[in-house]
Specification:
The complex is a heterodimer of chains A (about 400) and B (about 475). Chain A is about 35% helix and about 15% strand. Chain A has about 400 residues and is an alpha/beta fold. Chain A has a domain of about 280 residues. The radius of gyration of chain A is 25 Å and the shape is globular. Chain A starts with 7 loop residues before the first helix and ends in a 20-residue tail after the last strand. About 0% of the residues of chain A have low confidence. Chain B has about 475 residues and is mainly alpha-helical. Chain B has two domains: about 180 residues, no CATH class; about 280 residues, no CATH class. Helix content of chain B is about 70%, strand content about 0%. Chain B is built from 19 helices and no strands. Chain B is globular. Classes of the chains: A alpha/beta (about 400), B mainly alpha (about 475). At the A-B interface, helix 1, helix 2, helix 5 and helix 6 of A face helix 1, helix 2, helix 8, helix 17 and helix 19 of B.
Chain lengths: ~400, ~475
């Protein structure tokens, strides 16, 4: 260590101590003493006989140090400014793969992409075909709709990031196998190509979800598929864009992936709300109650709060809700959608042409959930599986949130 | 608890400093011991009682040894202490490896226990052995208070990954006087802590993204360029990870008023492989020298073969100490082979020309680089395959493109890492020694850079872009 006298180092030490003190106070760090002491309970081996009979010890184990650390860090004073600092530095250094360990890859314009590992598709094919067979025996038609990711050709991703992804090739393989097995399929990538659309225009830049207008576009194609494959007779003109009111906000929110890398890195996203101009009348099947309403009741407009911190506010994408509903302006159809979060904006649009629409997200239900019995008990006349294409392969990893998506 | 976590930085450290400095007189050490045990309990709750027992038994044996009048009694306590401490290390760290060897030799099906490693067990064991051996030799100046010994063994900045300080290193104060606030030591400590924090988070953790990706790929699929990029990044990552940790440990020790030995001295500036180990993990090298090599006879053995046997033992143990797997054994033997060669031929000393020395330096760095590739591989076969990929071109356009992409993405951190392998800052300080104003300005700029680096580092931790210390599981 240096022995010469210096005024700079004492000043540096003083600033450092000040920083520690300010963060200690502003984050209210002392509140973590309790949870930290709780973690020490893990030092004492649990009595298994007590743990099995005592419901408290089963449901409320001592927190791990990792959990306390995570909670502390997520409540740290100036946390979002720090995420912005990281993002600003990464952007200044033009780093595109800085967050690749979180499967976040950033294009020059700030659009975030992700990748998929190669998968056999065996599990997904087996489950989908088995469900189709079960339904076919009961004369309930099944339609599978593939919802794209932000690129329809894996080579595009590889060209930009010099890294392999299997998203589209996995899907090509999966769809060709279930088609061969006789499952009715709509691949929205075909429609994108046929209509000459730029797939990136259908998605938010800072989020992996598609936009509300993209959901409307997809709903029309899904309705067409239901007419063709499931005997429905939906009036497709309902989905014409001129029947809808569109309200736009510019640079107003930050997507789920964008929050991880910072607004300084990828910028804010635009948002468009879409609502029918025509009158609607619904009965909504809320939790434990039925209530009457209109299409507007699908939307939580309080989410559109431009004053709130973009990191703290709700994801604008989730302003549209999947709510099981009865449309009093449509006479036919009782559809079950097995979907994912993309369905937040297709469930409501599809319901405009169908009498009754329910939807489930399989991963939100336990492994024991009896889907087949649920379909029979509720008397659905068609089942639509609409999954984002990265759901295929989720079952390869038991820790994946998509692990149960194909448990039919 | 990691020293780079926000919980440590903004809760544990300020609270520990406040409690320590508010405590009067000699009670400070009692407080620091309690803080150290709490730190261990947070990091490794399942083994805290084992740790306390190991510390207590070691201190009791050390004190009994010190009181013993006869050499044989002292020796008995020493052997018992080494046996108990080494036994713990062998049980927790090597029993799985030993059983797997036994299983493969006998063909017996053995169910491995997969024991979790107690935090810092390799470091604790070596400190305990050095404590016992120094008491046995009479070189440790024992403090009156046995709690001081317990503090030496459990001192929280050093408990996880060293440096492997000696008992006397902790005797910063006159044992007859109360601990005193040493502002200069404290401010130096802050400087070192900040430097270490930045090295760890801004360089090691960022480069670890490159190495993690490349070493995770099946070794036979990586191209030559991709493999070299991974190996070079790992060499730099490991240096800045461990040197960063050591700086932080030295810095925190100083903040609490204790001096701690240096652990790194610009190791990649070495002239030979032998000298590399006098610059890398210095306290480990010194430990093996003092407690294994010299007791075995060291270089003074009359028989030349005995000297090489002693070296072989040291390097085998060094390899196994780093990990219970064959790649670490071969890694240790690799160092033995080259160091024995250097000793036998005195080649580095015989080279006189500037160019010759430069060529030998390049050879040394290349050798160390290959060694780190083996070190970081998941097993021996993968390590050897990886080295093969570094030496023999195997076309893989995508891997080559990816290597280029990563270079483009991480060039700044690579450049900074390479620059900091040289003593740029100390040399500049030295040059400005006689120019007070210029030196102060330089120090001020350095302090601002450190603070900015610290802010950036904290932001990376908050964004979840940090990693555990590479030596944390040793």
């Amino acid at each position: 260590m240096q022995k010469e006298k210096s005024i700079v180092k004492p000043l540096l030490a003083a600033v450092f101590l000040l920083i520690l003190a300010v963060f200690f106070v502003k984050t209210e760090a002392w509140k973590q003493f309790g949870p930290l002491v709780e973690t020490l309970k893990r030092a004492v081996p649990q009595d298994q006989s007590v743990a099995q009979t005592d419901p408290v010890s089963q449901t409320d184990p001592a927190p791990t140090l990792g959990e306390v650390e995570e909670s502390f860090t997520s409540n740290l004073w100036k946390r979002t400014d720090m995420i912005d600092l990281t993002g600003a530095m990464a952007k200044a250094l033009r780093m595109q793969g800085y967050y690749s360990d979180q499967d976040i890859f950033i294009m020059n314009d700030g659009t975030i992409l992700d990748s998929s590992a190669k998968t056999t598709t065996d599990y997904e094919v087996e489950q989908t075909v088995a469900l189709r067979d079960f339904l076919a025996e009961r004369e309930i038609p099944l339609l599978y709709v593939n919802e794209p990711t932000k690129y329809t050709d894996d080579a595009f991703f590889t060209d930009v990031f010099a890294r392999e992804t299997w998203s589209n090739r996995n899907m090509d393989k999966f769809l060709s196998r279930i088609r061969e097995a006789g499952v009715n399929v709509i691949d929205l990538r075909d429609n994108i190509r046929a209509e000459g659309l730029n797939v990136l225009d259908l998605f938010y830049r800072t989020d992996h979800h598609w936009t509300v207008p993209a959901g409307l576009w997809a709903s029309r194609i899904m309705a067409e598929g239901l007419n063709r494959y499931c005997g429905y007779d939906i009036d497709l003109s309902l989905f014409n864009p001129e029947n809808f009111e569109m309200k736009e906000w510019k640079s107003c929110w930050l997507g789920e992936q964008g929050r991880k890398v910072g607004k300084t890195y990828v910028g804010l996203d635009d948002y468009t709300e879409v609502k029918p101009k025509f009158e609607t009348a619904y009965t909504f099947k809320g939790i434990g109650r039925l209530y009457e309403g209109t299409f507007d009741d699908f939307i939580d407009e309080w989410v559109y709060d431009t004053e709130r911190d973009v990191y703290e506010s709700n994801s604008w994408h989730h302003s549209y809700n999947r709510v099981n509903c009865i449309n009093h302006n449509a006479e036919k159809g009782k559809l079950l959608i097995l979907g994912d979060s993309y369905e937040a904006v297709t469930h409501c649009f599809l319901s405009l042409g169908i009498h009754e629409v329910d939807s489930l997200i399989r991963r939100d239900l336990s492994e024991d959930f009896d889907l087949r019995n649920y379909i029979l008990e509720n008397g659905y006349d068609a089942v639509l599986i609409a999954y984002a294409q990265f759901m295929v392969g989720g079952h390869d990893d038991p820790t994946s949130s998509s692990y149960r998506m194909f448990m039919f | 608890m990691s020293m780079t976590s926000m919980l440590f930085l903004f809760l544990f450290l300020p609270a520990a400093l406040a409690v320590y400095y508010l405590t009067p007189g000699r009670a400070k050490e009692v407080v620091l011991l309690a803080v150290s045990l709490v730190f261990y309990a947070f990091g490794c709750p399942e083994y805290i009682f084992l740790f306390i027992a190991a510390v207590a038994v070691t201190v009791v044996l050390g004190r009994l040894m010190n009181r013993s009048k006869t050499k044989s009694a002292k020796r008995a306590f020493l052997i018992l202490g080494i046996f108990l401490n080494a036994g713990l290390l062998v049980y927790y760290k090597y029993s799985g490896f030993a059983l797997s060897i036994w299983g493969s030799v006998t063909g017996a099906e053995i169910r491995l226990k997969n024991l979790a490693l107690p935090l810092g067990i390799s470091f604790f064991t070596f400190k305990a052995i050095s404590y016992l051996a120094d008491v046995y030799k009479g070189t440790a100046k024992l403090n009156k208070n046995p709690l001081h010994d317990a503090l030496y063994l459990s001192f929280f900045p050093q408990v996880q990954s060293g440096p492997l300080s000696r008992y006397n290193d902790l005797n910063t104060w006159d044992p007859k006087q109360d601990p005193k606030w040493d502002p200069r030591l404290f401010t130096e400590g802050v400087f070192r802590f900040l430097a270490g924090f930045c090295k760890k988070i801004l360089i090691a953790d960022v480069l670890s993204k490159v190495t993690a990706e490349i070493f995770a790929a099946p070794p036979d699929t990586v191209s030559m360029a991709y493999a070299w990029l991974g190996a070079v990044c790992f060499s730099l990552q490991l240096l800045f990870d461990f040197a960063g940790y050591s700086d932080m440990a030295i810095g925190i020790s100083a903040m609490f008023g204790y001096r701690c030995p240096e652990n790194f001295n610009y190791p990649y500036m070495t002239e030979s492989v032998s000298k590399f180990w006098r610059r890398w993990h210095i306290t480990l090298g010194a430990w093996f020298r003092d407690y294994v090599y010299i007791p075995l006879g060291g270089s003074r053995s009359k028989s030349r073969s005995r000297v090489y046997f002693n070296l072989l033992v040291v390097w085998l143990l060094t390899g196994i100490w780093h990990g219970a797997a064959w790649n670490f054994v071969v890694w240790g033997l690799g160092y033995f082979a080259v160091i024995a060669f250097e000793r036998l031929t005195n080649l580095p000393g015989r080279i006189r020309s500037k160019w010759g020395k430069a060529v030998y330096r390049v050879f040394t760095l290349l050798f160390i680089n290959f060694q780190w590739a083996l070190f970081n591989a998941k097993d021996l076969t993968s390590g050897l395959q990886y080295i093969k990929q570094m030496l023999i071109p195997s076309p893989n356009a995508l891997a080559d493109a990816r290597a280029l992409f990563l270079l483009k993405d991480y060039w700044f951190f690579l450049l900074a890492a390479v620059l900091l392998c040289f003593p740029v800052v100390p040399r500049l300080m030295q040059k400005l020694k006689s120019r007070k104003t210029a030196r102060t300005v330089f120090e001020a700029v350095l302090a601002l850079v450190l603070l900015a680096g610290f802010a950036w580092s904290v932001s990376l931790v908050v964004a979840g872009l940090n990693n555990p210390f590479a030596y944390a599981n040793f």
